[in-house]
Here is the input.
Amino acid sequence: MISFNSIHELIDLAKENNTTIGNIVLTYEEESSMKPREELKAAMLENWQVMQESISRGLVNNEKSLSGLTGGDAVKLFHYNDKGYTGGTVMMAAANAVGVSEVNAVMGRIVACPTAGSCGIVPATIKAASEKNHNSEDEIIEALFTAAGIGLVIESNASIAGAYGGCQAECGSAAGMAAGALVQLAGGSPDQVGHGVALAIKNLLGLACDPVAGLVEVPCVKRNGFVAVHAMVAADMAMAGVESVIPIDEVIDAMDRIGRSLPRSVKETAEGGLATTQTAKKISKRIFGK
Ligand code: SF4
Here is the structure.
């Protein structure tokens, strides 16, 4: 029976079995849920279809959220794409991520990965990367299992909730999940997956959760776009052979300790940071009358 409590254990299992981390996570799911492998893969494929639908909707969606704070930016990015410094795959990942997040802001259907606030990062990057690499559907599903396994370890050893650990726990975790999946999609080794995850999370440690008016819109929607790009750079660094000096499981421990020591005001309470700027207060008054 396969079990793991750390990314290091996942990497070792993949190496011992001469397979990918995604495949190990799939076997773990098979054994723990007692469901056939094909059923689990079909369920993940369904998630991938929902993810793709949310990307497609986001890229044509000009609908503003009820608050009026977000909506229509993914369309702008999509049309600007080739003119930009980051034009191509990177800008596409940003556009996809902002699009999915905007769909979430209008109560559209998304896959929380790991949360609704950070729902754009994993699908956006996998979509952009798999189109560039021409990955098969099977490879994409396996990469999604890699992302799921990384999320599982983070949830067990730190947190994936902004209310508990700040935005490093939501968008930081999503960045790690995405970076690991992208390394696998690019054919990287299990060790490189670990470095990609570590590089991605390490550079988002301490990120505040300070949503304006308590809505998952500002800074969340655009942040999904930025963090998608961040995850791509982390994956590229790992694929180029760059290594994280601090091993991934120690990075996750650091994330947990930082999350515990962050003040309550930047843990989704809207009592600090951006949420207490003059403009944010005016927005809150306009929407909620206080
Ligand atoms: S700022 Fe807070 S609410 Fe927004 S995505 Fe980050 S953790 Fe979620």
Summary: The radius of gyration is 18 Å. Residues 7-288 form one domain. The longest helix spans residues 37-60.
